[in-house]
Design brief:
The protein has 2 helices and 7 strands. It is mostly beta strands and 138 residues long. The protein has a single domain (5-130), classed as Nucleic acid-binding proteins (OB fold (Dihydrolipoamide Acetyltransferase, E2P), Beta Barrel). The protein has a 5-stranded mixed beta barrel. The protein is globular, with a radius of gyration of 16 Å.
């Protein structure tokens, strides 16, 4: 069996890199994917899904070096299910509303932003406008 996921979105904050006890680099960052459409009653709808992405080895070092908050990326990898539920990680926002996050172990990360575009290229303004830093579960 095999599965893969492909997403394109913007980083919600700067990546964070660490090393495993064995010396392997691991970089984590979150990506917001946005979708806009018009509902049947004519109202515009903005939908955001957050993904937590982990990269390993040389890919992790490269992502940590070049990516910043707002960078547009294409990520290809596999979904990592929550160990407790087998699905997405379920959590409660500070305002009490339910939310979910999806975790991806990345095989490939492609940088889609040029250096000058990083902060100005977010689809709905700052990613924090769509879901504030308090709403990001990681």
């Amino acid at each position: 069996m095999y599965h893969t996921i492909l997403i394109v979105g913007n980083l919600g904050r700067d990546p964070e890199m660490r090393y495993t006890p064995g010396g392997q680099a691991v970089t984590n960052f979150n990506v917001a994917t946005n979708r806009q459409y018009t509902a049947s009653d004519g109202t515009p709808v903005k939908e955001t899904i957050w993904f937590r992405v982990s990269t390993w080895g040389r890919n992790a070092e490269t992502c940590n070096q070049y990516l910043r908050k707002g960078s547009k990326v294409l990520v290809e990898g596999r979904l990592i299910p929550d160990q407790a539920s087998g699905g997405p990680r379920i959590w409660t926002r500070q305002d009490g509303t339910p939310a979910a996050s999806f975790e991806i172990s990345a095989n490939t990360v492609r940088f889609l932003s040029s250096r000058g575009e990083v902060e100005s290229d977010l689809p709905f303004g700052d990613a924090g406008d769509t879901a504030g830093d308090d709403d990001i579960p990681f």
